[in-house]
Amino acid sequence: MKQVVAGLIIDGSKILICQRTKYQPMPLQWEFPGGKIEPGEEAKAALERELEEELGIHAEIGPEVATVAHTYKNGNGVELHFFLVEKYRGEIENRIFKDVQWAERSSLPQFDFLEADKSLVKDIAAGKIV
Predict the structure, then answer these.
(1) DSSP one-letter string for 5-60
(2) 80 forms bridges with which residues in the sheet?
(3) Containing domain of residue 19, as a range?
(4) pLDDT of residue 20
(5) In whole angstroms, what is the distance from residue 8 CA to residue 82 CA?
(6) Domain count, the chain
């Protein structure tokens, strides 16, 4: 099972979401920024690296707020570790995505999120998490 980290980057009532390009696996679906944990890498360090690579920011990684295990129809499994990010340095710059948006938490279910993110998206929109 692939170990993955993602940042829940919060600004007031909004949360940062990112849309995959048409060239990536699961094209044009929405996700929270992050990526794979490399061998020997700590989860928070992986998220710091990924946010710098994808968005050009230096994030202060907060607590882990959720873990989701999901197996896709093709048999690939992921275990996602979601961390709260309330502080970062630098301006967010879209380096790899089709789109990056600040979305109201309550509006998240109207976006086409990755299957593995959908239960967390409902919890965030309902105010159960962050």
Answers:
(1) EEEEEEETTEEEEEE--TTSSSTT-EE-SEEEPPTT--HHHHHHHHHHHHH--EEE
(2) 4, 68
(3) 2-125
(4) 97
(5) 7
(6) 1
Q: Alpha-carbon distance 73 to 49, whole Å?
A: 29
Q: Is the pLDDT of residue 120 over 90?
A: yes
Q: How far apart are CA 107 and CA 70, in angstroms?
A: 23
- The strand pair at 99-104 and 34-36 is best described as unpaired
> What residues contact 45, with CB distance under 8 A and at least 6 apart?
none
CA atoms of 125 and 85, how far apart (whole Å):
17
pTM over 0.85: yes
Residues 59-114 pLDDT 10s: 999 999 999 999 988 888 999 999 999 999 999 999 999 999 999 999 999 999 99
- CATH of residue 69's domain is 3.90.79.10
